[in-house]
Amino acid sequence: MTDDLLGRLILGRYRIVRRLAKGGMGTIYLARQEGAAGFSRPVVVKRILPGALDDDTAVRLFQREARIMSHLRHPGIVDVIEFSEDKDGYTMVLEYVHGFHLAKWCYFLRKTRGPLAVDIAVQIIISVLDALHHAHTLRGPDGESLGIVHRDIKPSNVLIDVAGHIKLLDFGIAQMVDDRTLSDSAEAAVRGTFPYMAPELFRHRAPSAATDTYACGVVLHEAIAGKNELRVKDLTLTVARVLHHVPTRLDVLREEVPAAVADVVERALAKDPADRYASAGALADALREAREVSADEAAALLAASADRDFRDPQFATLLKTADLATLDRAWRADPDTGDDSIPSEPLIDTPPPLHTPPSVGSGQAPPPTADTAPGESPSTGDPHPQRSRGLIFGLAAMAAVALGAGAVALA
Hints:
Layout: E1 9-10, E2 14-22, E3 26-34, E4 40-48, H1 56-70, E5 80-86, E6 89-95, E7 99-101, H2 102-112, H3 118-137, E8 158-161, E9 166-168, E10 192-193, H4 209-225, H5 235-244, H6 250-253, H7 259-268, H8 280-290, H9 295-310, H10 313-319, H11 324-332, E11 359-360, H12 387-410
Antiparallel strand pairs: 1-2, 2-3, 3-4, 4-6, 5-6, 7-8, 8-9, 10-11
Helix pairs in contact: 2-10, 3-4, 3-8, 3-9, 5-12, 7-8
């Protein structure tokens, strides 16, 4: 299947060079920003498909994501360069991250070297928490808190580049304190990825900074343990585990985990938000205090490990994705030289459904299992594949969850 945008210049300065992912509502591209005197740099272009413009929910979510991200200026958050509308729909231009997301890295390690090193996992989550603290505490021009909550923290939304820099992405279902988008609709009741959602969300409590920090605790536990203990194939059983299962202490699972780190993660995963750390900043500080290496040592270890693994030829082969050198050549190719590095076929199309609990409301593909390679873009995580199908499924899933949660409560 060809793509008419490949090779074209859009918005007067972004040349589309490779399709990274496609879903029911949008397409993600690798592009080159072109300027005067030979200036160029890689960017990621996310376009909502023309057919999706008839879906008011999808359009409003896309607009809201751009609006929320326009407020965020932090080295740990993927930057929005531009958001535009033309006759073909909406286009969001994002910072390109030369690396992969955490779900892909953990999958690669499970298949090759074993779980992520403890100090690296802690360093990654500290960086995510720093970015979240910025979002949670950001104030508008009037001095009032914007109350930005991410709502979908999970491994595939944490990007890592070859230099070990961490970037949080996908604010597609995020909210601000004054946001009323979809607030009266049924699908707004439960939104997120079930195995990472805080227990109170299934009791219809409002998302908050505490729900984001809880999700960080789940991601950290999973990265160190090598699996998510809350994830099962059945939606209702997943909700039951989120509500009632207490994840195994990390120092029981891996003897090299410091007891202080295990203590922090245990508190971060408390079922009652009142028992967790007061803020993302407080949790980050607790992890800094608990780890047994310095920040510089952890950062150096992370950078060296990411560079080694992301450039390993096995990585792209195992993940069935383009290697970083191929992506680098694609955006650097000169279209006037007849270079054939711009492919006529997509790198990744809509991934097949996996037999794991899906992300309800976000429209994302489900998280990877231990034996299934993540099917998302190496540079974007593909925030919106299969948007319409995800929303339709979400309505049915929420009905099942409501019944299942009721049954659990009665039990």
